[in-house]
Prior knowledge:
mainly alpha, globular
Amino acid sequence: MKPSLIGVKILDKIEKLYQDEKYLAAAREYGLIAEEYERKGQYKELIETAHKIINCYLKYSDKQLEEENFFDAAQKQIEAANMYNEFEEFENAKELIKEALKNLDKAGSIALKNQNFQIAGDIFSQGAGYSEVYLDKSITNQFYEKAIEAYQKAADEFEDTEYYKNYVRLLQFVAIMKEKLSKYDDAIIIHEKIIEISKKRTFSSIATESYLHIYECLMQQDKQDKALKFLKEGANFNIKEAELSLDIDDLINAISTYENTLKILKVLDDKKGIIEVSQKLADIYLEISNSYEDSNLDNTARYLRNAALIYKSLEDKKYQEEAAKLFEKVGRILFELGDNKEAAENYMESSSIYKEIGEFKKAADVSISATESAKMSNCKLTTVESLRNALEHLTDIQDETRIKLVVHEISKCLKDLSIEEENDQNYHVSASLLYELGTYLENIDDSSYEQIYEDSSIKYIKAADQAIEDNQEVIASYSLVCGVLLNIVINKMDLAKNIIEKYEKNSKIKNQKYFALANLVLNSTIEGKTDFNAITDQFKPLILNSVEISELFNKIKDLYS
């Protein structure tokens, strides 16, 4: 068991913080205690500690109210309400939200009075959002109306200035609030004004958002034909803007505009248009990548990867193949730069695509490159993941020679990771890693797999003992069933029987379904009454919802049917 955080020192520390009115610091300390209770499955204690955190938040909120910091008070009341919700104390949550909304209203009104119009709009908008979830529509609408007033005043400050983007952004907030109030005609008028200004200033992303909002408004009014026509207009405008940017070699703006075009085309479900624009976007990324040549390989790789992601998003096999080639090329460049972890990840992405399009040999070859990069990155998890992929792809092409080499590589990695997990007292994870290794060794007919399985079963039982100590009977019985089934797989019936006899003395374990499954499989196997279909029917959810149990159960079926 990991050392407990819950001792006299930390409780004394919390008491001191509480006395000094440092309520948020006290809440953070309680948070650490709550995490430990959650890890140990002590849910009663977890809930009690959560209420202490809530109390800290409310004390802090009261202190802020004394100083008329209404916004800060409301934020902590909202956090406390969210915690109540988490523990299904919905009435307490609702009452706190009511108080928080009163304070948000006060905070917004003060900001409005002080002419901090955008801040006021943000506060009222937040109030509307929470009111919409918890309270009635009339209160929500009041907040939206106040947000509209505040955002409009904020926008007016920028109308005749050079800060056009601020102006249209704030107008957009006004329009969106109008939509929330179902004032679709008003919202459309504002969005049209935004589009008109954005067209003159090449604010493609802002214009695109307003096109999409107008589309939604028209759809709400059952004006589907008009909505589609308007959206197509937006797509055509963006395409023309992108082409103008290309004419003056403004590639970055062209990229942004084409990306915005894709947002519209996806709503229209215009597959042909999506392919055409995606191809243009990929071409720009490739052009930028080529412009760097060898002068900046980091940027070369970055833009190549962007092109690869575009091709990957298209369904056609030829685009998928192009994506795989580009990811592989990115992997080579990053490997050359010494960024081995990123190189491995790009190689793995490439090999995954090759597999999906049926290029199994290529998938295997690239996965080996991923493995080499991952090993040099000294990142064990990435190395293991790349080796798993390599084994999967090599199995697809039945390359027995390279499979054995990769199993040798992954063997050391999995053993090292298993030891690390055991040292951290994560015994079930440690056992699972050894079990995985055993399956690889068994598949290549390496006789050492039996010893690995036996070592794995020992760790499963250690995991069970740890869970029992932490009063986590369900988790304990899950680890036990893995240990028992694994011993049956290697024909260690006496060991499996001893485990059952030892733990059936614990009534809390004996009554668990996982334990019943282990007991039934063992007795059926010993007695030769192996009606595995009946066992499957009886324990179907337990078997199907666990990869470990499902694999072990199927191994036993194959061995003893």
